[in-house]
Amino acid sequence: MNSSKRTWILVGGLLLLVGLVVLPFLVKNFRVFQLNMVMVYAIAILGLNILTGYNGQISLGHGAFYAIGAYVAAMLMAYGGWPFWLTLPVAALVCFVFGYLMGFPALRLGGHYLALATFALALAIPQLLKYKAIEGWTGGVMGIVLNKPEPPFEFSMFGQPLSQDRWLYFVILATLLLMFLIAWRLLRGRVGRALIAIRDHPIAAAAMGINLPVFKSLTFGVSAAFTGVAGALGAVTVAFVSPDSFTVFLSITLLVGVVVGGLATIHGAIFGALFIQFVPHWAEDISKSAPWAIYGVFLILLMYLMPTGAAGLIDRVLARFKGSAPAANPSGPSASAAAPASTHPVGGKL
Hints:
mainly alpha, 15 helices, globular, 2% strand, two-stranded antiparallel ribbon, 72% helix, ABC transporter involved in vitamin B12 uptake, BtuC
């Protein structure tokens, strides 16, 4: 990369960062809340994409990990008096353990069998949260009401004060950037190539020395940890958790976000989150009587026009604008063929 291109990337990144900092002061509190949920969903979608897009394990139960992360944060805040930011690593650790344990059945299950197993998890968790033996902790069907954290200082811009939602916006934005950086460092190296090799050629990957059981279990754990952090942030943003907030529909919605954003992409999580947050509202504005029919039409059109997701379309447009061939999609056949050979150094490391 030459110096002028690096300079343009640096300038563009700084301008984007300035825009993100100013953005919450240009809109009302409700829009800030929606932007917060977009970033929360983006973290959850990124976690699911690590599992499904990069490792090929289909999960219909990530709403359960989102719920676990949300309840861990809610209980620590409500009963332990913990500051909300301190609950994030605990939620990640707890969900990592649950995800790692869920990874063991994934060693013997694959495809639609694994999807059904995780679907059962998504069905069970909301019911378990209502169980009488633990409703003293979970709040049962009534859930737990939380208080949003107050900003540590007073500040205003463009006549808009630093409200609770705006303060959360900056905390969630910082967490989002950190999680995306972790995912980028994890997936752009040997570990990412190993995950793709396991997804596309598991037998060849094992022959090249990649430890399939370890990688599959750890991938499930890391994916669940990302989703748990999103759940904790979502609980604070909404300031309320209840079992009925984490139905199977949440798991399906996260999977829709992965596909719309683009399988095996990192930045696609942003586009997927924008879709699942705003398109249902637009569909309801178009038709009050049949909003989900409109939503389905939007989804079908997007899948027809962007079969590789929004990130794939943008990558192709940028590649054409630069006058070069688009880079190989990690989920494409070219990457599939090259991945096992490139992952040999990983074998035995974990």
